[in-house]
C-alpha cells in the first residue's frame, strides 16, 4: 500500500511524526513524506524534522511563500505531478494549512483516496483561512479522523457519512507525550534559552502569529497594550514567528523591556520553556491542546476556538483580542489557585496506532 503523507507548515510536522513512526511497524505500508515547502526556514522546518526524529522528506515541492492563491496553486501543480508519477493508494493530510487543502483537492480529482487527520474542527469564522481549508478538506476526505466530540457533531451537521468519521484521539498529543518523555532526561544544557529560563522565574510563555492579530495594527496594538501591563507583573518569553517579526517592524511595535524576544524555537526547546511557565498566552491551535494535555494554564488570544474541549475540560481560557478581555482572562488564570482540568478522551498517545488500524482494515 503506497501512501503519501503530506506536511507543509510548522504545525504539520508534529502531527505527521507519530503517524510516520507508527507506519514503520506495518510491513505492507510504504509511507513516504511529502514536504510542500510552505515553510522553509531552518527554524520553521528542518529544526522540527530533527527534533521530531523525522527522516529527510522523500519529496520536497519548493512551494515557498506567496499569496494564498499563489502558494496553494504552486503546491497543487507540484503535487499533481508527484501523484501522477507515484500513483499512491492513499494521501494523508493533517491539520488546516494551505498545503492540507491543496493536496486533498489534487488527490481527490485524481481519484486517490484522502484521509484527513484532525477533521471536523470548526471556528465558524470564515475570515480565518484555516476554516476554509478545513471545510474543503473535510468535504473531500474518505477518512475523517477526529480529535474531539465537537468535531463529530460538526461533521454530522454538515451531512458527512457517519461511516467515514473515526474518533481516534489526537496525534499532536501522541507527539507531545513522546517528546516530553525524552525531555525528562534532558537538563537543557544544549538549549540556548537555558539561561533565560533560569533567570526568569514565574514567566509567561507567549506565541502570536495569526494574520487577524498581527497584520492589523489596531488589533496588534490592543494585544500589546495588555501584554505590556502583564509584563509589569511577570516576565514574558516570546519566540517570534517570521510573520510577526515582519509586522512588528512595519508597525513599530514597542514591547515592554520585561519581554524577552527569542527566535522561532524548535519543538523541544519550546516545550522546555512552556511546560514550566506559569501561563501560556497564544493564538496557536496546537498549544491550546498541548497545554490542556500537560495541565498548564492557557489564555487564547482569539475571539473563538475550533477546539472547545480545551475550554470545557482543559486549562484553556478565551481571552479575545481586546485589552480588557485579555487582562480579565489573565487575571482569572493567575488568581485561580487550584485549576481543575481533565485530559480529554483518547488523548492518550495512541491516536496514530488507531489511525493505522482503521486504514489497514
Ligand atoms: C501558516 C498557516 C497557519 C499556521 C502557521 C504556523 C496557512 C493559511 N496558514 O501561517 O495556519 O498556524 O503557518 O506557523 O496555511 N515565512 C518565513 N519563513 C518560513 C515561512 C514563512 O519567513 O519558513 C514568512 C514569510 O514572509 C511568509 C509569512 O511568514 O510570507 C507567512 O507564511 P505562511 O506560510 O504564508 O503563513 P503563516 O502565517 O506561517
Give structural attributes.
six-stranded parallel sheet, seven-stranded parallel sheet, globular, alpha/beta, 361 residues, binds uridine-diphosphate-N-acetylglucosamine, single chain
What can you see in these coordinates?
- With 361 residues, the chain is of the alpha/beta class.
- It is built from 16 helices and 13 strands.
- The strands form 2 sheets. A 7-stranded parallel beta sheet has the order 3-2-1-4-5-6-7, with helices on both faces. Strands 10-9-8-11-12-13 form a 6-stranded parallel beta sheet, with helices on both faces.
- Helix 3 (68-86) packs across helix 4 (98-109) and helix 10 (217-233) packs parallel to helix 15 (323-335).
- The radius of gyration is 20 Å and the shape is globular.
- The mean pLDDT is 97.
- The structure holds uridine-diphosphate-N-acetylglucosamine (UD1).
- Uridine-diphosphate-N-acetylglucosamine (UD1) binds at residues 9-11, 38-41, 44, 65, 97-98, 129-130, 209, 241-243, 246.
Explain the layout of strands and helices.
Layout: E1 2-7, H1 10-23, E2 30-35, H2 46-51, E3 59-60, H3 68-86, E4 90-94, H4 98-109, E5 113-117, H5 129-140, E6 143-146, H6 149-157, E7 165-167, H7 171-184, H8 194-199, E8 204-207, H9 211-214, H10 217-233, E9 236-239, H11 242-251, E10 259-262, H12 267-274, E11 279-282, H13 285-294, E12 298-300, H14 309-312, E13 316-318, H15 323-335, H16 351-360
Parallel strand pairs: 1-2, 1-4, 2-3, 4-5, 5-6, 6-7, 8-9, 8-11, 9-10, 11-12, 12-13
Helix pairs in contact: 1-7, 1-16, 3-4, 4-5, 10-15
